[in-house]
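Blackboard transcription, Thursday session:
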Amino acid sequence: MPQPVKGFKVDPKQLRIYGVVGSVVGIYLASILNSTLHTDMFSFLAALATIPAVVWGANAVRRVCAYGIGTGVPSIGMLALGMGVVAALFGLNISEQLGVGFLGVIIALIYSVIFGYVIGTIANKVIKFNIPIMEEGNFDLSGAGTMAILGWSFAISGSLSYNSIVTDVFNTGFLAIIFILGGLAILHPFNANLGPDEKQDRTLVNGIMVCGLAIVAVGLCSVLTLGLAPAMVTIVVGFAVWYYSYVWFFRLAKRDASAVVGTGLLPPSAL
Amino acid sequence: MNFDINTIVYMLEIIVGGLLVGIGVHFVPVGGAPAAMAQATGIGTGTVQLAAGSGLTGLLSAGLMMSVTHNLWPILATGAVGAMIMMDATMLTGTWIYAYAVGAPFASAKVTYDPVTGWSQPPYVAPGTVGQGIPTVCFVSGTIGAAMGGLGGAMIYYPLVLINHNPAQSAIFAIGIFMVDAVLASWNIQGTIEGFHDPKFKKWPGAFKACLISTVILAVVAVLITPITGGA
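(Written on the board underneath:)
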């Protein structure tokens, strides 16, 4: 008896708004709660805020890569994170130099989307890709990469101040983990699901799933910087996200498969 | 933040580094997925992975040298040599696999005679493929490409450390710039290239322009990031 599965279809414009609003609000909420209550317990909110960003980025990857870019899907995920690292550092630093430390996330986001748009224009005009949505796609990717890096960096450092992010995330080398995990969360969904029967909901749910795993890893990193209690909250939340989206993804995969047969290794009730 | 002649020199160094990375990618024999199945010439993985690998090794070795001296030339040389060692080790072990495990003769489908050894190529290209393995010319080309990549990485890393006095942050920032330039260059060659003898190599001015524009934007930002002291 097949159960009906919750599927969805979202317009890219709508997803962009969700991505921007979700990640910015999440990071600022975490920042406000952490600083007013003098605790690190709410750092997991910033890790959760990367989910809309990752979904936004994964959707941009599937739109751009559906045209075929010739270099493999991973290249575009690494490009997104490369732009994101630069933008995140710049936003946090320049806002504190100008004395408006609280606007760091917004400045990083604005710089990243402008830079992404320029990269997309270069790709079309100089390298002659002629992909009509290249500018838009890189705009989205760059913004998503930046917000993912900022969110996970916050989840490790527990504060938005430039100095604490540099000490806790850059000097410890955790940014390398964030870089690869963020790249995976943004590029892997389309890389794993591409093909003629690729469906938006299945790809994006896969993105949430990888994001959940990334939150668990970020939580493990934050044991060292924030202590056990806030880290455990992040790990448990990440695990919950992973489990929920894994089950959801499994159902969607079964929905799109022509047949599901067991090999005998798993009990029939697991299928 | 103070803007003086040094800032402009730093920016120029970062820009030249980015351009070296962008051009260096064109020398590396990137085969992509077909090469992994021994159906195309080159190393069987994507540009970004190769560029990241050689760039990171170059950065690590340059950083090691920078902990000893702040003289520019040994740092650049160490970065280039580190990247060359990494790329050569990759190509050498790849060669063993192609030769002893896959059993494919090394041949390039893009040229009739190997420009380095002068050996004939077409008789050894299996039907239905575009060459196999890593012929001598690709190996030489890959070594040059890795040297340029490592040199570029070190050239980005060196001014960044002088600006923000933080090796870890400079390394990550350099990787960011490195990724952007490497991906733009790999888009220019559409994912695969054999080396400097490949007809696609003539497309390098496109990557040069693209990397120039993007690195200028990144360099302006890079020199603005200075350490913040005291509570902010």
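Lecturer's comment: The mean pLDDT of chain A is 86.
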